[in-house]
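Troubleshooting: if your tokenizer reports a length mismatch, compare your output against this known-good record of 68 residues.
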Amino acid sequence: MILNTTTDLLRKQTVIERIDFEINRDVNQKKVFDGYTKEWWDDYKAIRDSHRKRVIPIFVETDDRDFM
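Known-good structure output:
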């Protein structure tokens, strides 16, 4: 489909709102995940004393192969 008129295009404000929505969604999901991993780590360390001394890196690999 070829867009011939400006009525076929998205409004700039609509695009900006969608981008803001997706950024906020990603930030909120990261907060939820960070909270979950902290809770998991605290539970893991509470299992036994030797777990408190273990050095285990916690990281996430995204679909884009970025490490966080």
